[in-house]
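Subject: complex prediction, re-run

Hi both,

The earlier run crashed halfway through, so I resubmitted it with identical inputs.
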Amino acid sequence: MGVGKKHYKILFMAPTVIALLLTTVFPLVYSIVISLFNWNLVKPDTKWQFVGLRDYINILKNPEYISALKVTVIYVIVVVAVEVVLGVLLAILAFQKVFGTRILRTVVISAMVISPVIVGTAWRLKYNPGYGLINYFLDRIGIGGYGFLADAKTVVPAIMVADVWVWTPLVFLICLSGLQSVSQDALEAASIDGANAVQRFFYVTLPALRPSIVLAILMRTMDAFKQYDLIYAMTAGGPGTASQNVNILMYNTAFQYFNVSKGAAMGVLSVILINIAAMFLLRLNKREAV
Amino acid sequence: MERHKKVKWSKAVFFVLVWTVIVIYVLPILWIVTTSFKTDAEAYALPIKWIGFEWTTVNYQNVFQKGSMIHNFWNSVFVAVLSSLLSLLIGVPAAYALSRYRMKRGEMISNWILSTRMAPPILCAVPYYILSKSVGVYDTKGLLVLMHVLLILSWVVWMMRSFFDDLPIEIDESCLIDGCSRFTCLTRVILPLSASGLGLRLSTVSSSRGMSISLRWS
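This time it finished cleanly. Structure:
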């Protein structure tokens, strides 16, 4: 018994804590610091010129950032809402005793493990007005081919559809494991007491699914806010800036226009926004649980 | 009698719904796969030919003969496997500790670990880009592996912790009484029991993290 009980605890935790300090605290502090300076990769001499909050003020005044933020927020709200509703319904569907539910689970979950870049590319091809799969079916029912990704009005909904296709399976997976813990006795008791299927769903199944749904909302909100790969592969923010969200703008600012400080400032703003959203969601969950 | 009919009717609806969803998920994948076996002319042809076209492997031959594909593919596999193994090596003990020890700040630490997923990966890109340039490891496989490890670590900890939570604590207690240290208890007893979880973890990481932010730098 050379190593005490307490030492094991520290030994086990240390690698993860150190690694995460390196990945989160270091970049965050670093970003905050460089966002206060005037650092542009093509102008090395102004690197340590202190400009304070100038970048933040410029960003918030910049209509391009505001429009990107609008795209992001709408995207997050719509995508998360649709995915959670569909995910829950799908999970319940998968629990019915009908032929095909086993195949359903396998097929749906397999969509989630495809790399986002491949999914994005595949969807870009599907939307192609000439030979894409979607326009093919639209053509069949009488609506001609349409370049959804080339029209500023339809590009964001088109990307949302792709996002829903890829990420509903995650909600589905989380709810599936949640449904397994729904007590069959309670459902039976409710139906003996005269509750119909809708009432059973709202008063027995849904409350039991609460923790899973909250987890799904939390994860999807965080990830949808960070959405980058999919949009980049489908439109890279275009046409114009119609589908440009804050992440794509941030990437372009830092690595296309080499304005590292401004990019970092945008990153810090995003972190603040995501944290507010997450705190709000967690608070909501706690209050309702009481 | 009435009720029986109703049940049958709802079954039919469920059946249709289930198969609609299956089609929605299978069709696009099928389309991509079949298109990859078509010649250019047939790929653009309308109406879409699902089976009745001339199968050709010419696209695959092109891809492999260009040479960079195999190199890129090998890079992806190398990075995915190595980073998965490393992140498990780092994350599993922490997950075990969070699951088994009653820690004063246990919940706080695990929430903090979850919260690290909130930062946009691009936020990390700027500092690491600059750091790796100045240290001179920019555009190397080692850096890529390291980035992946750091990005997926919080996932590993949370996933493995839920697996460990499902294993009864009595197993630990009995092997501690039998004279194991905490470490041998983890490696000899708990890990073999949660092997399925590890497998799942590995497979999802290696497939879904095929490409991520750090890859785009190089």
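The longest helix of chain A spans residues 63-94.

- K.
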